[in-house]
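Hi R.,

Here's the chain you asked about this morning:
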Amino acid sequence: MSALFLAYGDDDLSAARAAQAKVDAFCPPEEQAFSLETFAVEPGAKDAESAVRAIGAVREAIATPSMLGSGKTVFLKGANFLSPRKEPGKFAAVKEAVERLTEDLKKGLPEEVNLVILATDCDRSTAFYKICAKIGEAAAFAVPERAKDVKAEFFPLVREAVAARGIKMPADALDALLERTGYSLRLVESELDKLALYAMPKTDVTRADVVAMVSSQRVHQFWEYADAFCTGNLAETLQCLATLFRQHVFPVPLVVNLQNRLRQLLLFRDAMDRGLAKLSGGERFRSLAWNIRPGSEEEAMMEALGADRPDKVVPPFRAVSLATQAVKFPAGRWMRWLAGAVLAQMEMTGDSRLPPETVLELFTIRALAPVSRH
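And here is the predicted structure, written out as tokens:
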């Protein structure tokens, strides 16, 4: 008997765990010293030479009998060459090497030889993918994008990871964590380890703990200020500004990015006020439904927004997040804040005697003080 397993996708932690589980199933840990051959593409390498070398090593290992004359498992990690439209897969030498490996697989794996491949990506239209799916198993592990996928697939994994560390996180703390990490399970687990250590000897991890310990990985640092500002929490926003200023982040890009966020929230709030969008669901799981009839005046209005059109250009789960934020305040307040941010930028780039950092802090205080309870 022989078997093939291909695990791929941007949820690298889940893919890696699945691949390792298959390796252990094919070749128990006590036999791996003599019956397992592991190869890896050099981390971060996009050159053809590294990929061709790894493919050649795998082909040779498949064709070489086991030292003990029994079965063997070949494990290839970090296969970053299975998409012919991206480097290094688009190089001619790599394509030729993949074709040779594909031809080997079409002939069938030798008796009692198992092959496990852990890939960063894989084009499903290629002959290599098709033969893997035909003679073995090809499993995709993707970071969820749609709200229903996050609810059904990702949140249960996060809750398991939280419970495994013996900590408790209220909904606002978990939201703050995922806003910073995105939906990478590997990154979430790494940050949970950090938070568990930080909270000791307590077991409760608060939103303040997340803000203090977890930096934003999902988006550029300029978004940190906009995220904090739009919560309406003055203390948290000033703390964020202080951190960014210590990192020598210039204030003008911060306020420009805030303007972009405020425009988005104003559009979402206006759409919901007009009945063009409806936010539903409880505190933990929400969904956003659009009600725009084809050919209607509302659709023409949306089309006029071009690249700012919220119902088409914003990914669904991101749209839910923005809509949830938009309903916190009326459209008039988002508009006043947007106007204030534009004036703050003009003051920073004009003849103001105040440093730009001070201008941004004063604008933040004037805007948020009336609504902040913190």
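One quick note: The chain has a mean pLDDT of 86.

Cheers,
M.
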